Each structure stands twice: as C-alpha cells, then as structure tokens.
Amino acid sequence: MGMNRSKEGREEKPVQDIKALSLQELIDVFKAWGESAFHARQVYAWIYKKKEFDFGRMSDLSQPLREKLAGAFVSGTLEVKEHLVSVDGTEKFLFGLQDRHLIEGVVIPAEGRITGCISTQAGCRFSCRFCASGLLGFQRNLKVSEMLDEVLLMSSRCRHKRLTHLVFMGSGEPLDNYDNLMKTIRVANSASALGIGARRITISTCGIIPGIAKLAREGLQVELSVSLHAPDDKTRSALMPVNRIYPVRELIACCRRYVQETKRQVTFEYVLIKGVNSDLQKAGQLSTILRGFDCKVNLIPVNPVPELGVQPPGKLEILLFKDALVKAGIQVTLRKPRGQDVTAACGQLRLRCAQKTRKAS
Ligand code: SAH
Fold it and tell me: Does any ligand 1 atom lie closer than 6 A to the CB of residue 268?
C-alpha cells in the first residue's frame, strides 16, 4: 500500500484504490486494524451496491473508521470527461485516467439488456487495420480498480442506472491484461459486489491462443468472442498483424478445444470491409474452416474510420455474405450499427479528443 513521497519528503495521499481488493482481502485489512468483518462488508456494499465512493458519506460507519479508510485508500480515480447520448439510446463515456490517458466506455441498451462495453487497456498494441483504438499506440494496462470504476461509473451515470451485461470489447486486448481481467470479472461476478452473472459477461479477443487456452481452465461460465475477420492467413495477417503469431488454422483449432473443454460456445466476430473480406469466395472459405463446429458468427459492417480508410460493403453484399453462411448451416447474426450519431466507431471519441489536445499543446 505504498505511500507517495513528494519532493519535500512530505507524505502524500496513499495510492491504493480500495477496489483493487476482493472482499476477503478487505476483511483481512479490517481484521489487521482490529475492525470487524461486518464493517468490511458494509464498505463493500456502499461501493458496489449503492455506488457511493466517498468514505465520508458512508453514514453507518463510525467517524474514526471513515477517516482511517480515507487515510489508507482512495476510491475512484476515473474522471468522466464526456458523456454523450445517441438518439438510439447508446451512451458513450470518455474517461480520463489519473496519468491523463484516455479510455472509452459505452452503454448499449437493447432487447431487455443494458450492456456496458469496458476498455481493458489505454491504447492497444495489436494495431488492427480497421480499429481506431490502436492508432495512438499502446499506453498501459488498466488496473482492476480502473475497470471496476468504468463499470460503476457507467452504471450510476447512465440513464438506466444499472448494467445487466458486460462486454470486454472496449479499447485494448483483454487477454493481454489477463490477471487484472480475471480479478475484475470475479468482483463483477461476486454476489457481495456487483452480482453480474458470468454468462452475462463476454470477453472479446483478437485471438491470443495461450490466453484462450488458459481461460478454458478458469472454470468461469463467461462468453468468449473471437475476432476472426478473415478465413485465410493472407487476408487476416493484412488486417490483424497478430495473425502472424497466431494464424487462422491454429486459432480455430484452439477454439474447438476451448468448446470441448468448457462445453461453452464461441462467437466469431467478422467485421465486413468493402473490397477486403466481404466477397462470396471469403464466405465460402469461412464456411469451410468452420465446418462441423458448433459456433456462432456475428457479422459487423465495419464502422468507417476516416483515418484508416475502411468502408462497409453495400447492403446487398452484406446479405449475400450472410446468406452463404446460413446455407452452409452456420448460425449467423448481423449486428446493427449503434450510436453512429455520437462518434461512429469505437475508439474515435478518444482519438478526436487526443488529437485536439495535441493540436492545442
Ligand atoms: N481486442 C479485442 C477487444 C476490442 S475490439 C478484440 O480484438 O476482440 C472489439 C471488437 O470491435 C472486435 O471484434 C473488433 O474487431 C471490433 N472493431 C474494431 N474496430 C472496428 C470498426 N471500425 N468497426 C466495427 N468493429 C470494429
């Protein structure tokens, strides 16, 4: 729980966020303080059930205990920089981290669900050609407390005042921040914290094979989405440099093993990009590599990112692609574009803001 010392040697505020601790770890701290586990549970409930981060306002705790907490922990380090609401109900949040990096979160209400889309890293090191998140490079992994802050702030500030589902599909690669991701999911999942069922939590990966293999052994009932985007190595490597390390055939084999081991399904995300991966030949190749695999394919017409020059195909081409997969017996869904009026593609809000700041300085 390191203290920061300023240049004058004065002790500054401690840096540990209380959300870095599981309930058991908090109980251990309280016991070491000579306080009861019951009070630790009260604090946990204030944070996760009542979304109250200010120790001073935890009114059923004694004043000395509130002061002790405020002296030992911080709670909540994210700052909401922008909050935009789309005409279709999608809400975008731009968050500032303490070291001034920016991340985005999105709330998507649809079909009786309110889904929070969570970022796992500031920036991204995987540089997919169609994605705005990698454009500013990689800054750092998000801490457990920062990811939980995204969840808590979005659930308390969004119009619906709660989130029913979480998708780790914001900026960054979840499996590249594996341990923090697992800890975040366990807190989100735990009944004493957020109580979001594991089946309502989705991890989306660009296809990190060792991460998928490790996830299979966690015994978590989470949903797994794999960003495939092309059925052959040439196209996929051009779109996603990570394919040079984890190529298509090995990735699909790993996903098949994942399904066998976990008895869970896998969803393949396939972003349709005009002139790149959306013709019928690609649909045929995709059907071939997924033959006999009980999986889903989610087609996503690419959100145009002007900086990257990607465009979605026309309606007819999209429907023909979908039809070819359906005819091959594959379960297919077609994602509707959401929140277009409040900064189109994921990652663009942050990109615009960072560009503005750069110009200004
Ligand atoms: N790194 C993870 C999670 C973040 S990306 C992953 O790759 O899955 C979340 C999803 O958004 C991925 O399927 C990604 O390919 C998709 N995506 C990225 N840029 C997009 C764009 N411009 N239009 C539509 N989907 C995009």
Answer: no
The reply to whether 166 and 305 lie within a common domain is: yes
Q: What sign results for the dihedral spanned by CA atoms 177, 144, 107, 309? A: negative
* Ligand 1 atom with minimal separation from the 303 CA: 23
Do β-strands 138-141 and 91-96 pair in parallel, antiparallel, or remain unpaired? unpaired
The Cα–Cα gap between 292 and 341 comes to: 40
**Residue 22 maps to which CATH number?**
1.10.150.530
Domain boundary among 48, 74, 100: 74
**345, 305 in Cβ contact below 8 A?**
yes
- Boundary (domain end) residue, out of 15, 48, 74: 74
The verdict on whether 104 is a catalytic residue reads yes
Provide the pLDDT for residue 167: 96
Q: Does the active-site annotation cover 223? A: no
Q: How far is CA 48 from CA 43, 76, 138, 195, in A?
A: 9, 12, 30, 9
**How many whole angstroms separate alpha carbon 273 and alpha carbon 202?**
24
Domain extent, residue 243, equals 79-360
Give the pLDDT confidence of 284-343 residue by residue, as tens digits. Answer: 999 999 999 999 999 999 988 888 889 999 999 999 999 999 999 999 999 876 666 655
Q: Which amino acid is at 213?
A: A
Cβ atoms within 10 Å of 356's Cβ, excluding its own: 10
Of the candidates 210, 76, 44, 227, which has an alpha carbon nearest to the alpha carbon of residue 153? 76
Q: 271, 338, 304: which is closest to 106 by C-alpha? A: 338
Atom of ligand 1 nearest to the CA of 310: 22
Pocket test for ligand 1, best of 142, 277, 346 (most atoms within 8 A of CB): 346
At 231 the pLDDT is: 98
One domain, residues 32 and 115: no
Q: Are residues 20 and 137 in the same domain?
A: no
Per-residue pLDDT tens digits for 230-284? 999 999 999 999 999 999 999 999 999 999 999 999 999 999 999 999 999 999 9
- pTM value? 0.92
